[in-house]
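Methods — Computational structure assignment.
A single polypeptide chain was analysed. Its primary sequence is given first, followed by the predicted tertiary structure written as structure tokens.
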Amino acid sequence: MKHLLSALAIAVFAASAHAVTIWDESVDGDLSGDRSLPTDLTFTVGTNTLIATSVQGDREYVHFHLPTGAVLSELWLTSWVGNDQIGFIAVQEGSVFTEPPTNTDVSKLLGYSHMGPGAGNLGQDILPAIGQGPGSIGFVPPLTGSDYTFWIQQTGANAVTYSLDYVVTPEPASLVVFAALGAVAVGRRRRVRA
């Protein structure tokens, strides 16, 4: 029965998971540079891709609200095109980013990290590293709240185009409920046939 529940949970997640580009600056325009008015993104269960171009001084702020019963389980830096090798990413809970880009009090950040080939994390899930930002509040993935705002920027003088995959999954408790419902449905089907 345990294996059946696990298999059903995986099947339910696989059926609902998808990949979608939620923002591409070359198509959708520049992301907000205003920390008090970040670009609002709509995440769904699956992979939510953000593609943007940044240069030193071009700060990008994005806000999202996780769907009910979902968590942000991974954040993959999937591409980095440009000569400068290091960028910066930070996160706070809430719908705005309260800390200024200069004289930032990292103790008020949920987490932060450098990213890019120079940081050695291209092609990796960077969410754990963000959660370990020295002096920050810190967290261990997944992010389970509802509202988060990210501050993203490139640190060099040359433009860089990067791609981030925000992976949203059902929270573990939701998977158990889905699996249980699937098991009930299978049990009913067996009784009807008998």
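Note: The first strand starts at residue 19 and ends at 24.
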